[in-house]
Amino acid sequence: MNAQNFLRILSASGGALFSRMTTSSPVRTQPKSWDSLPKIAHRGNHRRPPHRVEGMEDPISPKSSTPPWASGEQPTPASQPGWPPAAREAGSGRGDGTEEAARAYQAAGAPKFNDVPVEPLPYHRLWKADPFHRWWKPLVEFCISGPVYLVLAILVSIPMLVAPLLTGSAPVTIGPNGYPEGMFSSPFTFLIMFLSIALMAPCVILGRLIMGPRPLGLLFSVAGRLRWTWLATCLTIGFVLFVIVQGLTVLLSAATGEETPTPSFDPRTGVWILLIILIVVPIQCAAEEMVFRGFLMQTVGRWLKHPLWAVLLPAPFFVLSHGYGLWGLISVGILAVIAGVLCIATGGLEASIGLHVGNNVTTVLLGLFGLADPFGAVATGPSDAIVTLVVEGLYAVLVLWAARRRRIPARRDPAVTWQAWPGWALQNAGVGPRVPTTH
After folding, report:
1. Residue 107: pLDDT band by 50, 70, 90 thresholds?
2. Model pTM?
3. pLDDT tier at 379 (50, 70, 90 boundaries)?
4. Which phi and psi (to 5°) does residue 201 adopt?
5. Which end of the chain, N or C, is surrounded by fewer C-beta atoms within 10 Å?
6. Alpha helices, DSSP H only, in 32-136?
7. Maximum separation of any 2 CA atoms in the chain, in Å
8. Torsion region of 116: left, alpha or beta (phi above 0 gives left; psi -120 to 50 gives alpha)
9. What does the H/E/C string look like for 299-368?
10. Which residue has the higher pLDDT, 368 or 96?
11. What's the Cα-to-Cα distance from 59 to each of 79, 80, 85, 164, 209, rounded to whole Å?
């Protein structure tokens, strides 16, 4: 064998060996479709699914085939997207599309969704953030909150009327403005009067918890909660402004020679009344705002879109809840309108609560120290209404300036609202991600 033949044989055997090596270890290439990959049962250290714990349900693949509303209860938005299974598969890209998901959802007998909001929602239109809210629910909400408050107010007022009979003291007499006379001499009467109004807060919350819209925090602001930092800012502005105004009023009256009341303070009763003013009176103010600016404004906004209706229509109810004279009622109406405008402009109740608390607390404190008679004054003149307009208008300007500097949102972001709708509903509305379909 010569060298040329040896090299030819070696080349042939080497080529065969190389061919076997490349055949046993093919180069991996990306398949055209992942669906074409064979189903291989892997061995070794593969991950096993976690064991199902009894009593716990998988929100994506519920163990029960019965929808949550089969018992007659309304599902919450958080649990809604999982039903029915066809709708869930379509929303995750495993179904045939959103139209099939919508038909499957309807066939399952589920509650109908409201239209998906595509624009930011103002405060008086926050009902649109709840996919299941209906036009008649505010009426039922009132039928729940109203009677409950009436019963509680009567129960709380009974001790005030019965106490004189048991103690032999003078009976309670109601003044011309609707308040009991001599309130600053009786901490018990003072407490009952403001507590009976503060009870409106839990009653409104009860009605909202039952009827919606949800979440509950939509009653307070577009953020779905009470914005405590912003509330503290509004309270600070209100207190500082009204303390300055009330102090200037007292000094101006003394400088002009007008008859001014003599300062007085009885520590036996004054300390208790002071605590009530600092604790209960702010709650009473917040309760009134929850009713007249929260519930009523959002109820009007449920039926009428323009914010002007939501500001003006609740104002007469707030005015008629006070027992003042003509100019006093006009002053109350000015407060109602300014508070309503601030709710729309700042997206919540915090600014109106700051206005109401600042006005009431400073006025009642003046009465406690004998510098005013907030419960006995009925006949007022146009000057009081003018002062109210100027002072509360200045408060509104300061609050709006602070809201702009702090970038307080006045509308609810639709991206946050969309979380209450399932994916297929968002896609049908043209605001969700595109659903991939298989053919």
Report:
1. low
2. 0.75
3. low
4. -60, -55
5. C
6. 85-91, 98-107
7. 140
8. beta
9. HHHHHCCCHHHHHHCCHHHHHHCCCCCHHHHHHHHHHHHHHHHHHHHHCECHHHHHHHHHHHHHHHHHHH
10. 368
11. 7, 10, 11, 60, 23
